[in-house]
Amino acid sequence: MNKVFFIIGLSDSGTPYFPPEVMKIIKEGKVFSGGKRHHDIMRSFLPADYVWIDISVPLSAVFEQYEELFNVQCSMHNGIVVFASGDPLFLGFANTIRREMPDATIKLYPSFNSLQMLAHRLLLPYHDMRIVSLTGRPWKEFDNALIERVPKIGILTDTKDHTPDKIAQRMLQYGYTSYTVYVGEHLGSDEQESVQELSLEETARSTFASPNCLILYSDSLAHREGHLQCPFGIPDEEFHILEGRPRMITKAPIRLLTLHALALQDKHTFWDVGFCTGSVSIEARLHFPHLQIISFEVRPEGEELMQQNAEKFGAPGITTIIGDFLQQNLSSLPRPDAIFIGGHNGQLSAMLQCMKEVLLPGGCIVFNAVSAESRQTFMDNAASLGFTIQPSLHIALNDYNPIEIMKATL
Q1: pLDDT digit string (tens) for 84-119?
Q2: Which DSSP string do the residues of 334-388 spell out, in sequence order?
Q3: Residue among 264, 142, 249, 121 at smallest CA distance from 193
Q4: With the C-alpha atoms ordered 229, 234, 235, 241, is the resulting torsion angle positive or negative?
Q5: Superfamily of domain 4-111
Q6: What distance in Å separates the CA atoms of residue 410 and residue 402, rounded to the nearest whole number?
Q7: What is the SS3 assignment for 236?
């Protein structure tokens, strides 16, 4: 059975133009599919006896209808005609068809995607633009682009959690203030198209028609001068700390050696257990933005401390969990391939046992021992659990107690 899809890209224009080849496909088609907005645009172009399949969630039901049609109408030589927004290969429905029906034949007739059209309206070269989709997706890739100080970011929005105003509010919250915002609404529409240049503050307090997209742009000088700086080793005195506990922070030189031991450049998920001020998590987030970071702290005040410091240093996207580590439901969390034990509250043995169960093969645990007793406890328990003890580093810093940076690998 030959499964054929003709996928035709649309803009928001109510009077779209199609070349003769595409018009022939539409005129000879029997089964059509797309979103409700696509149906509204194309209704007057479709033949009298057409069948329409709405593309809506759950997508599994849509593909069941496709399969049923192909099975029942095995002689359907003209296939299914699908209408999609812009370029269907640009984070679009053509990729979904390829994934769900890899044996299907696809013939593609793209239009410009919305970010291309916005760049065209602005006469802005876009070959070097970082594309981020926030359409029903988490903040992670957007946060990464900010932390990496990407000067030109194209963003696909949604209508709920990632609207232009909420995007701008997040940027202001974490100090990324040197961008100009370009908002495109109903791009390609004959009557509703709008392109605006706004400040972040203006964007944060405005509402916008949907569909829309954004381009964030910062010229090189503003980017260097206006953005937060990211020192290699944030000075200890710049962190908000526990009231009355100035020594309760992993000092900058120790912090950097700890990150070196964790080898986070090739890790995916990092757990910081006992984060206190959040200094290790924040330093890791800024220098390894690809990481997913989950941070645990038993003290309730740690949650506010982490948020204050994350906002101050521009480190969005750290997941904070407050409470006794050993009482948490760890099975619902992504498994780590790197763990730092910043505090153990006298439960080091039990923690190591728990961590052994969740740590991915090849992962590591780093622990900074401040006493001979904790050093021995770590070595004995890690060895009994089947870890390999790596060479440690003994360091004395000013008038603080000597610290041994220890590492065990699985």
Answers
A1: 999 999 999 999 999 999 999 999 999 999 999 999
A2: PPPSEEEES--TT-HHHHHHHHHHHSPTT-EEEEEE-SHHHHHHHHHHHHHTTPE
A3: 121
A4: positive
A5: Tetrapyrrole methylase, N-terminal domain (3.40.1010.10)
A6: 26
A7: helix
